[in-house]
Design goal:
It contains 3 helices and 13 strands, in the order ββαβαβββββββαβββ. With 209 residues, it is mostly beta strands. It folds into 2 domains: 62 residues, no CATH class; 126 residues, Tumour Suppressor Smad4 (Sandwich). Strands 1, 2, 3, 4, 5, 6, 7, 10, 11, 12 and 13 form an 11-stranded mixed beta sheet that branches. Strands 8-9 form a two-stranded antiparallel sheet. The longest helix is centred in the first third of the chain and has 11 residues.
Length: 209
């Protein structure tokens, strides 16, 4: 069920007996990847240190509480082909992915489930349970100065609109580069890829706070 920003989201309930605790967003994504195809219902996960808390406005959450806030989350599935392989690899994540060749030169693509990467509001319209992924593309022709200005403005989400930044919302996004590019997921570098298909999996995980 998709939820808009104006609607109430999540409810307090008893801590589930099958709750799994992940250290961070990347680790939570690994748990989801390993289990999502084999479980009849969404996995129940709590994250010790999550970048999602700023988006959700959550403070002082603990996986040890008897009563916890349960929020249903969309998951983004990435199926990618590495630069040195023809075998497709599947990886799920709940936060964001970045594709780039050099961070201050060339195109940068961010695929987001939530608005923030660190302290920067890349995708101001993003919501992690709206059935969409948000794509922010920085044009490869942006100068270093333009890029630094855009990054500064991202702290307040005021970098848009911009003639060299494209912002779209989709249910699927395909990256197919002329050259291989680096990809990171939730802050961890995955490696060089040639192709990747990103797809939204609605309501695929229950996150407890």
């Amino acid at each position: 069920m998709t939820i808009s920003k104006s609607q109430e989201w999540g409810r307090f309930e008893e801590r589930p007996t099958d709750l799994q605790v992940a250290a961070d967003d990347f680790s939570a994504g690994q748990l989801i990847t390993d289990q999502i195809l084999n479980l009849a219902s969404p996995p129940n996960i709590s994250i010790t240190k999550s970048g999602l808390t700023r988006t959700l406005g959550i403070k002082n959450a603990s996986h040890r509480n008897d009563q916890m806030l349960c929020t249903k989350f969309d998951v983004i599935e990435a199926v990618y082909t590495s630069a040195n392989s023809n075998t497709a690899t599947r990886r799920c994540f709940i936060g964001h992915a970045n594709i780039y060749q050099k961070y201050f030169l060339g195109q940068i693509i961010a695929i987001l489930n939530t608005s923030f990467i660190g302290n920067r509001d890349w995708a101001p319209k993003a919501h992690p349970n709206d059935g969409k992924l948000d794509v922010v593309e920085l044009d490869g022709s942006m100068s270093t100065r333009q890029r630094l200005t855009a990054f500064r403005l991202m702290k307040s989400g005021s970098h848009l609109p911009h003639p060299k930044i494209r912002y779209t919302q989709k249910t699927e996004y395909v990256f197919l580069g002329e050259k291989s590019a680096s990809m990171s997921i939730d802050g961890i570098r995955i490696g060089s890829i040639r192709r990747c298909v990103f797809r939204v999996l609605p309501d695929a995980v229950n996150l407890y706070w």
